[in-house]
């Protein structure tokens, strides 16, 4: 099992969710985060002074999936989240050793 | 020290201004001109009803009980229309401080300090109410010497029984309303003035030190300055006349609703306090401009009580004060917005709100004396001037006036006080200004402004230094970093 | 059941109080003393204009059309100044409930319930407006029996045509303003009273059950109690006099602006409702004290309409009511703040705001009768008393009065109602209190308070029990846990 | 284009309405009936004091200076009670726009656009203030032709000096108050009207384009329409009479406080603007219903200045306007709530608040003319009608009226304007409606409504198209997606 | 060492924390997240229109523990967070290679 | 590749970001979290009652870096985030199996 963690632009959430659902992934967890990267931030103004804000709002999506599905998931997210402009985000994959569904106590593949 | 560096920077300007003032051949010449009308009508917060001239509230109080006039004061009974407006005005001006000013300031600090900021407004309201009833009203608004009033109304003693004995409001500035109402109205001015100062030292002063500072300032600075300008026998007060109505003070300063007493006074104390306290460790943009929007809006609405209420009657003068207040505010709001748009590329909520407040400040001393055109000029002047005050001036001199108490209130107040001397129209308020050929009034305004600045700066400095030694002025670095809300008040916005 | 345990706890106090009341030789003795002035001037929400004594609004309405007085009522026409102030007062008192009270309460609940809390204030405003126009106004403010008014103004019939036939406001408590304005003003009192109760049962009552409870309570409790105290022929009403002006009710209770009718009434109903409903599953600190700050501030500002408006005229009495309201509020705010600071180590926004509201509550019954010194004592007393009410008392007895409706409003209302009997000054309001050697008035106050508590508690209990059986009072545990906003209203603050 | 499709959809209704209007035998018949009382009393924003009939404010201004009446206007001096109320009313109506409307709207947009939304209200307030003082007041409220006023008050010239020469307010609609006060009061109406339009095009219009649109609209649409209905010689204005008091305009339209001038006018311009701009890319539920609650509450409170203030005096008519305003608002709030509860299963904060605003809108034209029962019917009608307007109608026709400017203000305004013709009671406002057997007045109302709709739609469309070509109306897709606050204003709520 | 990451219902936080403390785990990090899964979301209403909100508020808890404690931790969380209804959440476990306590520079086991 | 996840005190963010930039790490993702550990929480007061709040505001920083840079990154963060007082936070390192840049589809090292 793997965890696929993607950083995406906030307005892409629904599209990414739909893309995942369409390949059979029905669970995910979303976190509001701030990202720092190549995409330049914006400027806030306060009484004629400018404050550079280098962190941009992003969403982090975490999906636990069977190892066999990882490529499919990556493709689905990439396709749905891409705008082609700097700041589209990243996908990170790391190993998941075990999973448990709290309600039932089911383990691993059954828990997803 | 920075304090001295900055006052040194201001010194030439003050010196020149003072020179103009004191060197002028007859600084008191202003009141010589419009002989008959001036004494009463030019009074700050004057009562037009008292004069035969553009009579306002008089008729409603006519008929069987003798009409209110300064000559038959003892027979006078309240005018219900004037009283209704002044009761309303008091509520409006209270609304300026809580919630108005609290929100205006609260939206501009960081989220971690919003609770302390709004609580400061609220606590000052409570504290000054008590002090005013106990002693400040008496010191400021009863007869005493030219410099400070008497103690006859300490604890408000006798404020009602005089009336019940058949005599009206003994205060000649408000002949048609009960003295209690006049006292309440003035109380709200005494409340908002120190509350304004809090903008300068926001986000870093100890709450306990703030209470001490404001309490002492309200008695040692506000009371005498209010007496000078509005007291029955103050040095600058138009009401300070002999039996024949001749002005017997030092120079007659026009300050309809408090440009000098309220705004310059608060702004200068703010500057001193942020110099003494030092800059904040970290700053940032406004955390919630919606709060600032609400605050600025309620300040605007409430300011009608402030300015039109300062007519102390519901008549012609109140109407014109309302008109010029509305115009100057709108013009100043737009001016600031366009200046910032040109300068920084974007029009901001904080900007237009700040501009509107700057306009309100600047029109305050002028509101009973100038007309629509004058108010437009004042609006443009303070829109530009206060923008510079809150940006260029602050950065050039390097003090950390957190919410621009000096940049908006002192700068705006000075622009307004001086331009009142320029644009005053005899027909509207009973005193001509520079454009009507009376340069003496401009000189008078300069003298008034300079005197208040000097007195205020010195006394505020002394008070702050004493408090710093005794209780300490500033929170620790850790408290400042984590926010005053949690550390000082145990509360946090979720 | 807890309900009984708590009333058992209160029983001795009530018993003693009742004993003092009923055992007093001549409970009605109070009005024997200031013979001439009392009948009109001591009236709750009285019209000083009607008496020759400290005449307030009279002069402005003088001249050609005959002045308004209770004897020549038919000839009377409205006084524009008084009317202006009462129109304003109505707007101010409406502002107390929406948005004032909604925000005051809304800031103190958890974020998940803020929508339900503010909507409760808004819905009560709508509901009670309709009920008041349809039936409550008539039941409370027209002549009927000593216990309940008549039906002559049901659906407000005839409220204008009487006037158009040339007769003034038939309500002797408000001779100088149109009856419509008096009705509107009283309507806003009928609105805020049940809205206050909502603080007790917040965060757990079904919205539908709330509507039923408030609707029935407004008719079955508010209408009769208001009639007792302010109706033209109520058992406690100073207006309940014979042709010669002699009081013919049971005992004359002083309640200038609603200490008994509004605050004790609401507080006791709140206590009963939180006892019947039971405690919340989970609690927590206030989610946004900025909302509470705005709410408390608007309550304060609006309360001038409440108290000074209760003079029903813009004159001397309104001015003194304004003065003592401001002072008591400020003193109580500071008192609560310092008590909490001493007790818990920190001064809080919620604390000073709660103290100010406690002060407003306590000065309400007293505002037309006491002077500045009396108001200071009342401020200290309720600042301490309500702090204990919201902390020690609540924890000792264990009921879950979510936002301290009982602890602040009933406790503050009782302190105010009783101290009115102590500090009333004949010169200000026409009735002397204990300190002026009239213990009878104190006894009267006790009788009034006890009667209202007993009636209110019983009827509120019955109404709640009936609703519980028919529609159910409380939301499910899951709804309570996830928040009422989403579950009951489909809305959430983002 | 969608614009045409929708107007095509409305066409049959308009056609029928117009037919009724123009085909009616004597559309001007309405004023023939209540001969004596009507001319003055039926005037929109009329001054009851001017008539001998249900005289209101007169007595207070009696005595030595001659009472104000339209015949002795030159001798008239301000009535302090009326002036007090009108000063207050101006403050209340200003409070409706800032902060009221800004918050009402601001709470309903997404969080990313709340700054732009509140700033729009604030900037419009500033902009229209200036335009009104410079030119709109003169164009709307001075004599000129039937279609547009003159230029005699451009830059407010002469607004005070006339009075100082001993003549009263030359505006016959407001004989008892200073002209400055009348001007300020009307200014606040001119401010809120375009501010309402902003609800339609929220979340997607460029800020610069908004300023151009509102500025041009305020001059090209508001000024003439206000002149038609309220100008001294407007085609629909009851004040447009010859020396003997006979109506000499086209048809006399009853519009007490602005159902046609303000609400239909704003609503139709809103519809046109959202049609021209097109729909938003993404939508969502209200981000903070607490802000909407505050906004709706302050609109309600401020609306007393709007409606009762439109009596331009503090007397009987103001009292009845206050009464029916309160009732209609409450009834409409409950109606919308129950309809939505039945339809969607839950009562919402946004729902009851929207219903209350719908009630305020609909009672606006009627408030000086109908009684309590009429106001209840109007409340139910607009509660249902505006709910359908904001839901079914909008979805059926497919335009994106973001905050339901058309669905609430135009629909509510039409319901109110037409039902005014039905429920007007001669005794209350001087003109009978359909239920008192005067169908002609209903026809008049239809004519007024249709004329304003047609003129407004055409001119608004032209203005928008010109701006679109010159500066562009809409922000880029990226700006819309990320929110206007950051992109246009460089500010964000944290 | 492992990181145990649990998605739970928000009102279960205190119970989970207590359960962890009682087995000797004294550090954890909590994040507010939105979850999507089988549990159906709710509906928001705005002027008679309904907006389906499919993401539900959840809390993510991250606990770094020695590998030997993982089962104990899983059991503790499962027991404390379970209500038996859909949406109780999941527990994910993945390998932690090293840990550092910033204050002291202590490493790995000592850092927890 | 590794993911370095650090829990730090909020006011240290700018310093940590600068430290990372100075060693050539130009991307990171920040999350607001609540931490529970040895550092004791604070007390909120509501009408004379005290509510103990044991969770403190912290920031979580996630940085994906090449394995070779991990020590450098840890040192940079440790140096920048340390105040020496309890509650300075932790750094956790775990393996990252793959990374993708959504915009370009670049993989692994190229994606960072
Ligand atoms: N090395 C990294 N570790 C963790 N998150 C990163 C890293 N680099 C980028 N990110 C995240 O990815 C987002 C997008 O990266 P950025 O460099 O702006 O554009 P792009 O995705 O087009 O490369 C950043 O805002 C940040 O949240
Ligand atoms: N595959 C997954 N990857 C990441 N998080 C998931 C996954 N599936 C579920 N979750 C999280 O677990 C929560 C609960 O899942 P859900 O399917 O609703 O119920 P249950 O926990 O009873 O299976 C979801 O809200 C989501 O936050
Ligand atoms: N075992 C753990 N698993 C996950 N996060 C932890 C763990 N222990 C501590 N933390 C996080 O590190 C933060 C700091 O820990 P704390 O024990 O307070 O001080 P220190 O960092 O000085 O050891 C905590 O607030 C928490 O967010």
Concise summary:
The complex is a heterohexamer, with 3 copies of chain A (112 residues) and 3 copies of chain B (494 residues). Chain A is built from 2 helices and 7 strands, in the order βαββββαββ.
Describe the structure.
The complex is a heterohexamer, with 3 copies of chain A (112 residues) and 3 copies of chain B (494 residues). Chain A is of the alpha+beta class and 112 residues long. Chain A has a 4-stranded antiparallel beta sheet with strand order 2-5-1-6, with helices on one face. In chain A, strands 3-4 form a two-stranded antiparallel sheet. The longest helix of chain A has 12 residues. Chain B is mostly helical and 494 residues long. Chain B has a single domain, classed as Ammonium transporter AmtB like domains (Ammonium transporter fold, Orthogonal Bundle), CATH 1.10.3430. Chain B is built from 17 helices and no strands. Chain B is globular and about 65 Å long. At the B-C interface, α3, α4, α5 and α6 of B face α3, α9, α10, α11 and α12 of C. β7 of chain E pairs antiparallel with β6 of chain F, so a sheet runs across the interface.
Gyration radius of chain B (Cα, Å) is: 21 Å
Order of helices and strands of chain A: EHEEEEHEE
Instruction: List the ligand species.
Output: adenosine-5'-diphosphate
CATH topology of chain B: Ammonium transporter fold
Q: Structural class, from secondary structure content of chain B?
A: mainly alpha
- The side-by-side strand order for the widest beta sheet of chain A comes to 2-5-1-6
Proportion of β residues of chain A?
Answer: 35-45%
Write a concise keyword list for the protein shown above.
heterohexamer, A: 112 residues, alpha+beta, two-stranded antiparallel ribbon, 2 helices, 7 strands, B: 494 residues, mainly alpha, Ammonium transporter fold, 17 helices, 0% strand, globular, binds adenosine-5'-diphosphate
